[in-house]
Design a protein that fits this description.
Elements lengths: L1 H15 L1 E5 L1 H9 L5 E3 L5 H7 L4 E5 L3 H12 L3 E4 L7 H12 L3 E4 L14 H9 L3 E8 L2 E3 L7 E3 L4 E6 L12 H13 L4 H34 L5
Parallel strand pairs: 1-9, 2-5, 2-6, 3-4, 3-5
Antiparallel strand pairs: 6-9, 7-8
Helix pairs in contact: 1-3, 1-4, 5-6
């Protein structure tokens, strides 16, 4: 019952909000399905992204009671799911996602879910990228009119008939997160041998967390700027 209600809310949001994709070339790259990607967005963006993620896609959903409600809801609006989380107990879920990537399917992860802390990236996406050699694409959204739920992540709920921006980040290759060619080669070699140290793993995690947070800030500024332009009087 709750899953059906949530799916209905997602559907209403999806068809009434005026969505605009920024970095359209990344969106089209994913839709062409020449190769799979790991798509990551914060848990607060989950309602908007559930509607806008290119299908087919498999997402990681928590097996906890609230996660099951969400999991069944996203299935009703066309997403495939595997059960697990992005934290350190996620090995079985990550293995299932790795199988999906091997089939050529995109996967989606909210790396601060299921229970936070908000905007703190768990190790799941880094581990999955390391296991598979697949690039990570961050994606976020912001609406000009929205409700913020009183939840741990302040879930964003766009108001019907609002305008929203979906901002796609550039694909992230783990080895390319380092600026020097020497470190890039070192990390690339470690990835190939599946021998990344805990320190390097943590550095990679922090870098991706920073990228996703910067993308979130940029998206909020984009929608804020658009809103200000619309409110300015026309000058002749």
């Amino acid at each position: 019952m709750f899953s059906m209600l949530l799916a209905t809310i997602i559907f209403i949001i999806g068809i009434t909000v005026r969505w605009r994709h920024e970095n359209q070339h990344i969106y089209q790259l994913i839709k062409k399905r020449k190769k799979p990607y790991i798509l990551v967005s914060w848990h607060e963006h989950i309602l908007g992204m559930t509607w806008n993620l290119p299908r087919p896609i498999t997402t990681l959903n928590s097996p906890h009671s609230d996660g099951k409600i969400l999991g069944r809801a996203v299935q009703l609006v066309g997403l495939n799911i595997v059960w697990g989380s992005s934290n350190k107990q996620a090995l079985s879920g990550l293995r299932d996602l790795a199988k999906e990537l091997k089939k050529g399917n995109n996967v989606g992860i909210t790396p601060d879910g299921p229970r936070g802390p908000a905007r703190k990236l768990a190790m799941g996406p880094v581990a999955l990228a390391h296991m598979t050699g697949i690039e990570i694409i961050p994606v976020v959204f912001a609406a000009d009119r929205q409700w913020l739920l009183k939840s741990w992540d302040k879930t964003r709920v766009p108001k019907p008939f609002s305008s929203a921006v979906i901002l796609w980040g550039e694909p992230i290759d783990l080895s390319n997160l380092y600026k020097t060619e020497k470190m890039q080669n070192t990390v690339a070699s470690a990835i190939e041998k599946r021998q990344i140290s805990k320190k390097v793993f943590e550095n990679l995690r922090k870098k991706i967390e920073t990228e996703l947070n910067l993308l979130t800030q940029k998206c909020d500024l984009l929608i804020s700027s658009s809103d200000k332009l619309r409110s300015m009087p026309n000058k002749r």
